[in-house]
Amino acid sequence: MFLIREFREEDVYDVFRISYESLTEKYSLELFLDIYHSWPAGFLVAVTSEIIGFIAGTRDNKSARILMLAVDKKIRGKGVGSALLNRFTIQCKTEGLKSISLEVRVSNKRAIEFYVNHGFQIISMLEKYYTNGEAAYVMWKMI
Ligand SMILES: CC(C)(COP(=O)(O)OP(=O)(O)OC[C@H]1O[C@@H](n2cnc3c(N)ncnc32)[C@H](O)[C@@H]1OP(=O)(O)O)[C@@H](O)C(=O)NCCC(=O)NCCS
After folding, report:
1. Residue 107: CB within 6 Å of ligand 1?
2. Is 17 in the pocket of ligand 1 (CB under 6 A)?
3. Domains along the chain?
């Protein structure tokens, strides 16, 4: 069993570790704190006795954008990613947002399938989006 709650500053090391192990792009501790301060309610963690996953986003007055979503490798395929995405979506709706977008590596088939299963569709492609030159799909969903 796990619960979903808002990120706290002391979570930053655990979130950093999961991000480092799960995401190809590398981010600094400061970046996580900046993202949190820009929209605290849009940064959620999944917790058992420790942090097992997180989602972080940004927003404007109409839409949200998922910046990162990752679940500890050992616990994937057990509904944690879905729970984080669902809670994030509820938060967006509560704030009156109308859509959610995100970028995902074109090679990340599992994540693309995950997002399609959650109602997202590919709307465009960004060439050389990532540091290693890989392209991104932009995915989008009305909420
Ligand atoms: C994408 C990601 C966040 C999904 O999290 P998750 O906790 O595994 O997601 P869920 O368990 O809620 O759903 C995973 C889906 O894949 C299926 N699946 C089966 N085995 C799986 C496995 N070993 N790993 C992942 N997914 C698996 C599940 O059945 C589920 O499909 P369903 O909803 O149709 O049943 C996670 O795989 C991850 O952290 N990936 C690496 C980072 C990443 O790619 N992030 C997204 C880029 S922005």
Report:
1. no
2. no
3. 3-142 (3.40.630.30)
